[in-house]
Amino acid sequence: MEAKKKKNQCYSFFLTLLGLTLFGFANTYAQNAVITGNVSENSSGSPLPGVTITIMGDQTQGTQTDFDGNYSIEVSGQQTTLVYRYLGFVTKEILVGNQTVINVSLEEDAQSLGEVVLVGYGTQKKSELTAAITSVNIEEIQKIPTADIATSLQGQVAGLNVAIASGAPGSAPVIRIRGMGTVNNNDPLFVIDGVPGDLSYVNPADIQNISILRDASAATIYGSRASNGVVIVTTKRGKRGDPQVVVNSYISTHSINDNIEIANRAQHDQIKLEAYANVGETPAPYLTNGEQYADSDWADAYYKNAFEQKHDISVSGGSENTTYNFSAGYFTNSGTVINTDFNRFNTRLNMDIKLLDNRLKISPGLAYAKEKRRSIFEPLDGGNASFSPFLNIYSQLPHKAIYDANSLNGFATPATGLGSGNPIGQGELTDRIDRDEYTQFNIAANLKLFDGLSYQFQYGLNVENEHFFFFQPAFNFGPQSINEDPFLSETRSRTTSWTLNNTLNYVKTFGDHDFDILVGGSKEENVFNSAGGSNNRLPSDAIQALSAGIGDASSFGRNFSSTLQSIFGRLSYDYANRYYVQASARRDGSSRFSSKNQYGTFYSVSLGWAIHNENFFKTDLFTQLKPRFSYGTLGNQLIPNHLFLARIGSGGQQLNYPFGEDVTQAILSGAIATSLPTPDIRWEETATTNVGIDIGLLDNRIKASFDYFNAKTTDMLVFTKVPGSSGITTDPLTNAGDLENKGWEFSATYSSKEYKDFSFDITANLSTSKNKITKLGVEGEARTDGFIEFNNFPTTRTEVGGEIGRFYLFEANGIFQNQAEIDAHGVQPDAAPGDLRFTDVNGDGQLNDDDKKYMGSGLPDFEYGLTLNAKYKNFDVSVFFQGTQGNKIYNGVKMWLYRTDRNNVSSDLANAWTPQNTNTDIPRNAFGDPNNNIRPSSYFLEDGSYLRLKNLQIGYSIPESAISKIPVSRIRVYATANNLFTITDYSGFDPGLGNGGTFNRGVDRGFYPLTRSFIFGINVSM
Question: Do 238 and 353 meet the contact criterion of CB atoms below 8 Å apart?
């Protein structure tokens, strides 16, 4: 019995021990359950690799999905909440409960996608940025219908200056990031789908994202080509699913506002007779019998209304492993000037192919654009300007007839006594045509080596073929405007550039520590070849082929190449989403420098502090508060090739020599040294300091960003003057310049809550930059530019202590009313009552170039943009204002038309000073201008500030219920007005023109005018 009792006690003990053990195991299981599952994209069902899964309240425990979207994570109990995060998707939180398998579908977050910013060789969350980078709102700028995306960027981004050099269809705007940081090439680098390229060939409808890299810490990873900032563009790619078709189409009309008032025949005769009488000269015979002549309006014949249309279609879709996006577009603009137009056809195909269980992704892309541009010559660049065709039109005598039905070509030859020339006839008969073809191919392969480490290979090829065709038929418009035989010139050129990038990227999270490490190498080559020929005598206007030429034939051509090879690296680190550090370095080697200075090393570091994520900073007011700091250096190699070598010029009538005594002598080629070698030239270097802050208020309904920058360029490459007696025809390039450029940028956005189907948002930006030359060549050296015509009337000067291209002019100080005022002034002996008074600035008793003074520049004090968007039910409205303040414009057109010694003049001169009309600011009419009233002076310098309603658009989306029975998912129609009005005090064509050159910005020589357009369009998705 006792034994049985002991046995039962043993069983009881064993059962108790077993129960305790099982309870322990059960308890252990409850604390250490393993959850598995898959994460996919909601719209397509595609797996999402790299999704971060963490335990709420404990960021140290987490995992990521693999290449198939699968994951596994250990949790402590049923009350655990898992947090699923993925860039560009809505974060999801799920309570574990009694689940052991949790499959999750994440939805795209449109707002979050807008917060993803393109950076060098990758992307980054805007909340993690430490550099000055702006992500452009593509949806907003694509509301401005245009064939050139760069034009749409004007006024949209703080620190990005987009100026219009010419209103000609197909002309590219001048783009500057943070003003001008060098006297050399200030163009930014454009990176399209990872490959440097030409933005003007990209169809705006194809663009998915644009980022503007404004400071050195953001741009260092791209090296020397990024010294003027970087514009990164990605084009649209396909998504898994059924084919999606999108059609965008619009038509528009364009017209110009010709506010240049020219004298008609009667006004011209009155003004000229007065001008001759005031100097005692006998007037030209045509002035005394003007009624026998025509009364032509040359400007009215030169301009026309234009028609524009643009049509785009895209098809995208794909399977689980292959996606695609194909697009095609057509654009044409008939031009508002005679015999000008532009058209373009473009197509693009992007694909993504997944292999090796999604470990390898291959992304090929191919784009092709074909353009044809019929144009006129415009003096857009700096240096000695050629004569503007618009000045030629406005200065034509109204007495000349334009058309003659009895002539062979339909245009009139000026009557005897009226001089020569018919620019309307010459313009209509002359063909100046550019035909360009641009092909871009790129392929990228991304291989996931193991968790966190990936390798990417990318190769890009750009091929640009250009054909310039110039044909001028025989014509006779007077003895000084005659072309006896048809003339033809053709040039063909090819530019081939390729880029090869190899990178390794390691991304890993260790608790609160996030690391992103990138290392890579790059090589680029650019090759240019051209060949051309001309013949000054063709047998007929109808035969336009060089092979048919029977006159003097010539041939020409050139070729060059350059290479750039680099290694680079970047480290990004953040701790607990609060403290951010990023460091980059790049070493570039360029063929544009000699072997002793071929390589340059550039670096940057940036810091950020997310104060809003600190435990001590808890407030409902601030959603974001992040100060930023960066410092970095960049090099600049944007100079012509082989300038470090001594160059030889050969051939030509001046250099070739005949030798021998025979009647037919051998011609031997001669050569001269045209330049001095400068083997010691080295990289131009810019060091930039940037301090900024990002602010978000009221759950990010208010967002603001402010940046201050200071960039100092040293060893700036400038051409140094050498004596003409040296025989050297090209000044040598040396590192003899320094420049400082500083300014600030501010942008802010307010987004309202939706109230009764109504919502709106307002975005404003404001920026400024000022540059100052601190060293330029030898002591006292200066550069003169801003010529109104060839080698005449310079208006700008660049020297130490001031901005690039400041206006350097005489100071006009009213009009002499009588001889006593002239005598008292004492420095203008050729003046008469009614002439302009000019200030003797230095008081030396004489008026000469020493009395010129600086009077501002074409760069504005600040630029701004304001965008308002509103939605009510199916209606949407967008209003965009853009403007500048404080910039000056030298009105060269006005200056030219105030010259009474030329052909026609401004109608303003009908109100010129006379003894009976002294209450006027227009000087007297005097043939020959003995007082030189038209000298470059403040009289022709005007305020170029303006405010422009650049875009107004009203759209309506057809309700889904109305289109449910047709295979269309969305239809939107809209009406748009571009350049609806401009508020300005500038009296010329447009204050936005005249910005083509570095040293002559703000000099209006007469350019192709901007237009006002009215647009009607439709967007269809299927």
Answer: no
Percent of the chain with pLDDT over 70: 94
Cα 162 to Cα 417, 748, 864, 993, distances in angstroms: 46, 20, 11, 11
Residue 618, classified by CB atoms within 10 Å of its CB into exposed (0-12), middle (13-18) or buried (19+), is exposed
Q: For residues 513 and 255, what is the distance between their CA atoms, to the nearest angstrom?
A: 59
pTM recorded for the entire structure: 0.86
In 3D space, the residue among 215, 11, 42, 240 whose CA is nearest the CA of residue 687 turns out to be 215
pLDDT in tens, 544-579: 999 999 999 999 999 999 999 999 999 999 999 999
* CA distances to 128, 133, 160, 579 from 627, in Å: 11, 14, 21, 10
- From the list 479, 351, 378, 466, the residue with the least C-alpha distance to 421 is 479
d(CA 727, CA 672): 9
195 φ/ψ sector (left φ>0, alpha ψ -120 to 50, else beta): beta
Q: If 0-12 CB within 10 Å is exposed, 13-18 middle and 19+ buried, where does residue 651 land?
A: exposed
Task: Assess contact for 374 and 341: CB atoms under 8 A.
Answer: yes
Cα(157)–Cα(865) distance, integer angstroms = 8
- Of 374-383, 714-723, 792-801, give the lowest mean pLDDT range: 374-383
Interval 446-495: pLDDT, tens: 999 988 899 999 999 999 999 999 999 999 999 999 999 999 999 999 99
**Cβ count near 479 (within 10 Å):** 8
Residues 6+ apart with CB under 8 A from 204: 141, 142, 146, 147, 148, 149, 152
Could you write out the DSSP letters of every residue in 81-110?
EEEEE-TTB--EEEE-TT-SB--EEEPB-H
**What pLDDT, on a 0 to 100 scale, did the predictor assign at position 1018?**
95
